[in-house]
Amino acid sequence: MQIVLALVIGAAFGATLDRIGATNPNWIIRMLALRNLHLMKTILLAIGTGSILMFGGQMLGLVDVMHMSVKSAYVGVFIGGLLLGGGWAASGYCPGTGVCAAASGRKDALFFIAGGLLGAAAYMVTYDSWKASGLLDGIAGGKVTLGTVPGSKFEGMMALPGDILGIVLGLVFVIVAFVLPDSLVGGGEEVAAA
Amino acid sequence: MVLNWKTGGVLLGFVFFLAVLLVKPIGVSTQFVILDAIVADAVNPELITQTDDGAYTSTNAYLAKSKGKYAKNASNPLNYSFIFVIAMMIGAFASAKARGGIGKDEAKLPAIWYANYGDTPVKRYAVAFIGGFVVLYGARLAGGCTSGHMMSGMMQTSLSGYIFAAGAFLAAIPVAMMVYKKGA
Known about the structure:
The complex is a heterodimer.
Chain A lengths: L1 H18 L5 H8 L5 H22 L15 H17 L3 H9 L3 H27 L10 E2 L9 E2 L5 H18 L15
Parallel strand pairs in A: 1-2
Chain B lengths: L4 H18 L7 H14 L4 E3 L5 E3 L2 H15 L4 H19 L5 H5 L2 H7 L3 H22 L3 H10 L3 H21 L5
Antiparallel strand pairs in B: 1-2
């Protein structure tokens, strides 16, 4: 059953990434250079929609709170984020969109995957030094949500009800998606939409 | 043409919701480690071992962490998360085919690369390779990528998701502006 769900949800995810332009480095780079924020609006609306549905579903008792999986916060998250961001902008791919782009026929994405496999292997062999550095030790409580979600195994940073806060923040994401302009920076000639 | 952001955003949000409703939040970058471990274990079978009580462990500390979770998944590739990434590729392939493919030029070089650097595929493939290395090293250091940390994380109001997104955009925006000056 798990495998069937993996096939169905995974295929839906891959197809959606393709249809919103996330597997297309042109759209990713135009977004990150702030020249065309169409994809940013898509992503913000998606986070908001997902958040409202999940926390709303939890409040109605339709969504199992135990399905939440919160990752730990530590200094390495920020450093890793910086690295990922730099590589993301230079290549136009992140891990998920890179594998989907390769599947859609992009040759450069194959090189991205090859580099990615080597990068992941490099982390495997250097993990001990990161661990010893203390930069992987949890900060601000480690695996925490911003508010305290009822019935969750994860602690909240604040005593605020985490499900209501989740819906409010979800609405904020939706509003930002609507008010965000189409572009923050002009410049360059138009690249034909591919 | 891509989907309008309102349609696309709701659709993408619904997929993330569906994942957490039925199984667990979406994540991708761990599977690069799993594939590495599958290959490495095939070359050196002593990398991943099973103890008498059935638990998995590894001579590599990263694969052995969290009670050998990664070692176990690499020994059993037919697990949810690994199949999920294979299915993503099938979905993206079918979707691209259904809309008529991406075209020969785009398959070779993205238009924005061409606008900035011309017909230089070798240079582009080198940048993609190095970019991939840095992206996955960073994602494993952070413990997740754009899917797991940014999308799934912020959707669940995880503190770590916000920290990750701050780092990612802080680096990505100036790099994108500097490397790709042309192409709106």
